[in-house]
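Amino acid chain
________________
===
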Amino acid sequence: MKKLTQWVVGVNILSILWLSLLFNQYDSKISKEHFLVIQFLPIILLIFFGVFALAVILYRVATFNDCKSAAEDLQAEIKEARTALQQKGFKFD
């Protein structure tokens, strides 16, 4: 639950900052010049988050390493289980 709390607090802080810029709470030159960007900031951040998530997934899939010793151990256990089941009367095709 700690991670969820961190995310909720972070989103709330960003929302408060965004709303204060959107409703001109701080009379600054930047908020007047870039008002269009400020309006679409949540959509822009959502797109960036999606691109980042996709990049992380693609990286993790590309660098996924095989564990050959575990695969060999599993194959050996499967063979042992087959022979044990065949001795008990099961037939495999």
Remarks:
- The longest helix spans residues 41-62.
